[in-house]
Amino acid sequence: MVQNLMTMRFGNRIFTPTWNRENIASVMITFKEPFGTQGRGGYFDEFGIIRDVMQNHLLQILSLVAMEKPATIHPDDIRNEKVNLHNNIIPDMPENFSFPILMKIDI
Fold it and tell me: Could you tell me which residue ranges the Glucose-6-phosphate dehydrogenase C-terminal domain spans (predicted)?
C-alpha cells in the first residue's frame, strides 16, 4: 500500500479531490513489525530502533499521506513538498500520544 500511496492520492479521480483537510478529520499511522531484529541487532544497539523507525519510515509515510501535490513527479519537487510539510507541522503535547511498548525480558 505504501509503495502506491502517491499514485493512489494524486492519480486517482476518486481520492484526489476528497483527500484534503476539509474531508479528513484525522489519520492514524500504525506500525507493527511482526519479526525481530534478525541480523540488525548491532545497528539498533548503536542507533536505536525508535530513531530508525520514526525518522526513516514513519515520517516518510506521514509525508506521503499529508503533503500537498508536488508540481511534478521529479524527486526535487517531491522532496520540496515533504520539506514544506515538515516545516509546517505543529508539535503536539506528549500526553496526547499513545506509545504502546511491549517488551519481553528474560531474567
Answer: 6-91
